[in-house]
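Hi there. Long-time user, first ticket. I'm pasting a complex I've been working with (about 501 residues overall). I'd like to know whether the download I got is complete or cut off, because the file seemed smaller than I expected. Thanks.
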Amino acid sequence: MYPAPREPRQPGPSRAFRAIMRDPPQAPQHAGSTRMNIVAIRDALAGRIDAGAPVTVRGWVRTRRDSKAGLSFVNLHDGSCFEPIQVVAPATLANYESEVRHLTAGCAIVARGTLVPSQGKGQAFEVQADAIEVLGWVDDPETYPIQPKPHSMEFLREVAHLRPRTNTFGAVTRVRHCMAQAVHRFFHERGFYWVNTPIITTSDAEGAGQMFRVSTLDLANLPRDERGGVDFRRDFFGRETFLTVSGQLAVEGYCLALGKVYTFGPTFRAENSNTTRHLAEFWMIEPEIAFADLDDDADLAEDFLKYIFKAVLDERGDDMAFFADKLEKTAVSRLEAFLAAPFARIDYSEAIDILEKAPRKFEFPVGWGADLQTEHERYLSEEHVGRPVVVMNYPEHIKAFYMRLNDDGRTVAAMDVLAPGIGEIIGGSQREERLDVLDRRMAQFGLDPAHYQWYRDLRRYGTVPHAGFGLGFERLVVYVCGLANIRDAIPYPRAPGVAEF
RNA sequence: UCCCGAGUAGCUCAGCCGGUUAGAGCAUCUGACUGUUAAUCAGAGGGUCGUCAGUUCGAGUCUGACCUCGGGAGCCA
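Hi, the file is complete. Here it is re-exported in full:
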């Protein structure tokens, strides 16, 4: 019967397990600890470890193949790179029949042995095992969700805690990390400071959508004010508060003191939008530069995107090759094309001209004063220009109050970066730095200046021209990886009705 | 929120015009075979056909409501 060898499945802490616990949590590099020769699979496969060296690899089983020649092949992944390593387990191992032959996808093991050139095809190196210790069995192999076969992305969303074990989500995770590191590196190298703007805010009129309320009031017994409304003076902060929808207004204060700053943090929108492009919780990047106009802003946006894409191509070739192979054929080539040419730049008015003369029909009408629809944006970047294009100077009434009014009095210094395959990827503007004009704009938008005294102060005390832009990090991840749904670009997505895990 | 589509084995799916005991591939288990590469071959187990109601002699199949998921639109990053 089969169950007998399963006995050791709930062992006490083994020696290997205790060793893992002792392993420095922040090993300086992938080379790992010299104690026990623990190595990352990435280093073993890349030839950074001498052939013949004793090695220990730790990870999760992807597949097991048995050979009657007296050995089994165990493919092991540990997250350090896309490829798993092949562990060759000879039948002479003490637990070969009792344990090794029963390994299934998802089992956690520690394999000690020797790194050797592979006798088989498909990999340069493999681990010839002297010992294999099973740290964690898979409770019920038949119902273990992650099988060595293609799964639908829809199914994997239902097992968001296990999907990082798949090729796809391992790759997305590494690429996302690479991009986040590149974001910080890009700004740091250019003298920007990372500013952490508040997550809890009182600004409720940034025009960026519905907000999540933050409150400690007892919902079943709300305090009332004189007029019968909810008395937020009794709430935690003594006033009504929400989760941030943007750090831009707050970061402007730091921009007008430190010159070049950016935010990179979580952002929340309570819109009931159920699409492949929206999340209720996402990460936004918002640089803000002083002594800068809209052209400086567009330059920064172009440099920024190219830097991120280049970093991914340079550092994550293994994962990108997988995306190009399995998810989106042009995953790599379109990034290369993106890097190859300068962005086009056109005025909004020019864009309207182009669209009106376009040899095709649009579902939504085109006309000066109307905002560009997704179909318009795609036509401009994909068909008319054929590469990323920055559209600048939009009609003032379709853009936010803080955008700088141009001399023509009917446009503002706003820009959208449109890219083939995605449409709008970045939105930005030069900010209105003149107090009198800002006040007029706020009145025009029906905003109460009393709520923006601190923002107005920035125009009263040493105001200078400044500009910035914002982009949703996950949308960038979607584009880079060739994903179809933004819920696959973040570990545990939050969306209307979706807050499991 | 609106429009459209889909829910059948652990996963991916087939199932005709309503009619006998609901099938396949993968996965799992057993056996054979092999330095194997998502191995191969043979066999076995595995199903309240999303839920509830209705039509019918008879419903996986037709009708309605609901639930869940997906795609599109709007909003936007």
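A couple of notes from our side: The first strand of chain A starts at residue 54 and ends at 67. Residues 1-32 of chain A have pLDDT under 50 and may be disordered.
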